[in-house]
Amino acid sequence: MALAVERDLEAVSSGMAMWLQSRRGVDTVTVTRCERPAGGLSSETLMVDARGTRKGREYTESLVVRLAPSTAGAFPEYDLAVQARAQEAAGAHGIPVAGPVEYEPDSRWLDAPFLVMPAIAGYVPGPMPVRDPWITESVLAAEGVSRRMFDLLAEIHRIDWRAVGLDHALPVRDLDAELAYWARYLSWYTDGAVAIPALTEALAWCVAHRPEDEPPHSFLWGDVRLGNIIFDEARQPVAVLDWEMTAIGAAEHDVAWYLTLEATQTELFGRAVPGFLDHDEACAYYEARAGRSLRHLEWFEILAMVRSTAIMTRLAYVQERAGKPPLLPLADNPLLDLLSRRIVEAGTR
Fold it and tell me: C-alpha 187: how far from its chain's center?
């Protein structure tokens, strides 16, 4: 399901042709393809192929163009420059990314700033791994994909963010700042409609049970999902995508985000992916790779459920107001039941 409001592809093609002439020095250029890949629930992502001549020689290029949504989106603010800086830093430390990434701040080309990066060939897993034949083809293949995802996460978290000055480029949020950010989000996400009490109450629980000691900070990927990784034919990662939620904060945020999304899908579909590391195996494997212990993970998982459910609820509002079927029912959302149950279970321990 795509964003509720999308840009006109002909206008994007025209703007990109002019951008390529100006920024790439292309003499003549024709955009032969401009289309949206499947998905795209937050930023708008476009696949652009161009050909022409440059200095008398044939020119061809396949690009990915990423823009903030033109109207309502999943987040109140989009900082593409931050995403570009995070992607650059990751790539400079050996993380496979789509690079080089170029940030274009001038709005004259597409009526908004945008990112440009090379298109990377490979396979992007679907949003529901348990229903993706590429993942479930064999238990051994699924286990390898699962381990490589945690390898990537540990490698990202080991980057010395202070040494490369990421604290001056990315948001830095301790636990209090993180909780404050999501309190503001819950004041914004309905656009004036009645907020969902269960989400507000769940965040209040997180505030009341905030860990007293702060885990060490790391460079965070943010939206940790298999669907944000491109794999090659050998199921090796060739590009980590979507740095929209990047920040400096506790590494537990990234680990909990992935584990919570997987646990939610397991609950909803009644089964996990055979071969995927289970919760305890994943934690032990990550700790061994990252060289550190995970702390207060249950609390981080509940906060991750609040965050992910709030975002999905926001997207449901956006789709509903655009006259499209919402991703999840607003009145009887099963994710809210799961969240309430996790909080009850945490209170009994």
Answer: 22
Superfamily (CATH) of domain 129-347: Aminoglycoside phosphotransferase (APH), C-terminal lobe (3.90.1200.10)
- Whether residue 89 is predicted with pLDDT greater than 90 in this model: the reply is yes
**Residue-level pLDDT at 82:** 97
Enter the pTM of the model.
0.94
Match domain 9-118 to its CATH number in 3.10.180.10, 3.40.50.970, 3.40.390.10, 3.30.200.20.
3.30.200.20
Q: Is 172 left (phi over 0), alpha (psi -120 to 50) or beta?
A: beta
Q: So what's the pLDDT on residue 349?
A: 65
Q: What is the CA radius of gyration of the chain?
A: 21
Cα-based angle 225, 164, 152 (whole degrees, multiple of 5)? 25
More confident residue, 3 or 70: 70
The pLDDT, as a whole number, for residue 3 is 47
